[in-house]
Here is the input.
Amino acid sequence: METREVAERYYDALRRNDLDGVIATLEPGCQAEVPGATLDGREQVRGWMGSFFDAFPDIGHSTGELDVDGQSVSVDVHVTGTHTEPMVTPHGTIPATGKRIELAATNVMEVQGDSIVVLRIAFDAADFRRQLGMG
Here is the structure.
């Protein structure tokens, strides 16, 4: 499978809020770098992403044009959602605030064969907290 096809499967699942579909594109031993943490393996990624999907049931992801360079794909992602459910984090649970978020994120992935082996998700975590009214 081509690198672009793997990335398109990932982003198609993400736009459908299909967490199982997103996780299925990841190599079981993948590594993900996210704001404040490095996640090892599919289940840690599922836990991290799942906390967003749970806390923001209307979460939406729109993507710019995929930039494919060999086995690497980068793209800008626009994330929106309303915080209507508690968000479980490693630092405790954030009660639902009812606030709407709008985040600009950058994703970079490394693909081998038909799976993503490295995923880097970057966004301004301080801006995210501010939008939730947390300082």
